[in-house]
Every structure is written in structure tokens, then in C-alpha cells.
Specification:
This protein has 154 residues and is of the alpha+beta class. It contains 3 helices and 7 strands. The strands form 2 sheets. The chain has a 5-stranded antiparallel β-sheet with strand order 4-3-2-1-5. The protein has a two-stranded antiparallel sheet with strand order 6-7. A hairpin with a 2-residue loop joins β6 and β7.
Length: 154
């Protein structure tokens, strides 16, 4: 094994050199494995939470309910292959779900005060809340924006 090469990268390199072309990983698979490898290396969880209910429509998909835990195995354009995780951490069922229904565990998006809305929608949401209420939302020209309600300002 080359110096400074991780086991995962070395195995991936060997797979790329496979004599049988159909056993070599596609570029998409290489990217997915590298992303998941980086997540593990930097302590980013490969565990995700569902943010809302979704009903499966295809035979290779699984239905999900909000707040269920999942382990991501591979990522495609708009759906991910996941395993539903039980309370012991074991995999229960495996199938595809839309990627926009999952957020990384311990991420901002899973917090009750995070909302993926525009400024006008944030103001409308906060109008019905007591003073001191707030939400964090994504912003086009920066990472996030804090919107809050005070008796004089919003």
C-alpha cells in the first residue's frame, strides 16, 4: 500500500483497476464513496433523520415517517438508498427515499427553530408567535439568516 493512503482509498483504487470493466465502479459510485469516506473521516454522521412522512410509490422504495433514523448507503440524483435503523442501531429495512426528506442527524435542519422559507414567509410565521420567537433560515447571499419577533421589530 502506498504511504499516506487510507485502506478505503486503496480498495477503491484496486476496484478501478479491475480487469473486468463491468466490475469497475462508475464515476458516480466513486464520488459517493469518497463523500461518505470524508463524512466518516471528519466525524460527520452517515446517519440521517426523516423530516416528514412520505409514501413509497415504487417497489424498490420504502415509506417513511417523520423523525425516523436512517443510514445512507448510496446517493443518486434525487433519491438515496437507505436502511431504516432500529433502536439498537441495527438495519431493519432497505430501500430508496427522496433525498429532500432526510437531513443529517444533529444538523440545523432537524431543529424545531429551523425553517426553509423566504423572508416574507418567515415574517408571516413569526406574526402568530409570541415576542422573543425566532427562526433560522437559509439565505441566498450567505449561509443563514436569523429572523426574530420583538414588540418593536421584526
Amino acid at each position: 500500500m502506498p504511504p499516506l493512503c487510507t485502506n478505503n482509498i486503496y480498495r477503491l483504487m484496486l476496484e478501478c483497476w479491475n480487469e473486468e470493466a463491468n466490475k469497475r465502479p462508475s464515476f458516480q459510485k466513486i464520488v459517493e464513496r469518497k463523500i461518505l469516506d470524508n463524512h466518516k473521516r471528519f466525524g460527520i454522521s452517515d446517519k440521517y433523520l426523516s423530516v416528514k412522512d412520505w409514501q413509497a410509490t415504487g417497489k424498490d422504495e420504502i415509506s417513511i415517517k417523520a423523525k425516523e433514523r436512517f443510514r445512507v448507503h448510496s446517493m443518486e440524483k434525487n433519491r438515496w438508498l437507505v436502511s431504516k435503523v432500529d433502536v439498537t442501531g441495527g438495519d431493519v429495512i432497505r430501500g430508496y427515499v427522496p433525498c429532500d426528506y432526510l437531513v443529517r442527524e444533529k444538523s440545523l435542519e432537524e431543529q424545531s427553530w429551523f425553517s426553509d422559507v423566504y423572508r416574507a414567509e418567515a415574517e408571516t410565521l413569526l406574526l402568530s408567535q409570541p415576542n422573543g420567537s425566532f427562526l433560522v433560515r437559509p439565505r441566498i447571499d450567505s449561509l443563514y439568516c436569523l429572523s426574530g419577533k420583538d414588540k418593536w421589530l421584526m
